[in-house]
Amino acid sequence: MDGEKPVFLLSIQGILSPKTLEAAREVHNRTARAPANVAAARQLSDLSHMVYVPLGGNGHAGDFLILDLWNNMDGLNKFFSDPHVQEGGGLIFGSRDPVVWTPAGLVSYNFPAPYGKNDRIVATVRAKVKSLAEASQYHNALVQKLVNKARIAGNMSHTGYYRMAAPGDPAGLEFFAVDTWFDAAGMAKHYQNPEVMEGFGDLFSVPPALGVWVHPAGEWVEW
Fold first, then answer.
1. How far is residue 57's CA from residue 109's CA, in Å, rounded to a whole number?
2. What is the CATH number of the domain that holds 58?
């Protein structure tokens, strides 16, 4: 839609500081559950806050991913400049890589899940593209070519982002895709398709970093 307000993605990927996921859950919820904290984030334009761990995790703390959607950069910057928010992040993560991503303006889609398909697996793809012009051409051709096969395999959505950077900054060539699936086996088979691997070779200047994520066990504060 012309004039649509952009929705920015904040990804925070890192290594948890607590030694177990249960301990990490308690720390996260103690910080995020406070009504004042939730209200402040939402008031400043935080539309969604979701947490993930790698698929097949064994319950021990390790890699952790937060994906937040914001529709106001000033609000995002104000929220995360708060010393209390920074302190909370330090309690959750031993090390972390926060990145703000802006919509890439490439072909994307969002399909409903069939009834009873309740699993949610998030796949992330991150790498630098060769150029924005080439990326648009190769990405859109690949997605349009494979969307039907991806849907049959259990794909629900695909969205692409570029790293927010100053004009001309090479960091602006970093691409991040987020796909949501309801079938882990179908997803794995799809990504092993030679057409997908060949498409990645055309799109990226280096092999991409791939991640497969699921919601961690237990009740985590999300919205």
1. 29
2. 3.30.70.100
Q: Which residue has the tokens 């051409």?
A: 137
Statement: the pTM of the whole predicted model exceeds 0.90:
yes
Same domain, 42 and 115: no
Q: So what's the pLDDT on residue 169? A: 81
**Residue range 30-70, pLDDT digits in tens:** 887 666 778 889 999 999 999 999 998 655 568 999 999 99
Judge if 188 and 161 occupy the same domain: yes
Q: Which residues contact 214 (CB under 8 A, 6 or more apart)?
A: 52, 53, 54, 55, 57, 119, 120, 121, 122
Alpha helices (H) along 81-166: 83-92, 132-153
Residue entry with tokens 């648009």:
136
User: Do 84 and 166 fall within a single domain?
Assistant: no
In this structure, are 198 and 127 located in the same domain? yes
Residue whose structure tokens are 């309740």: 118
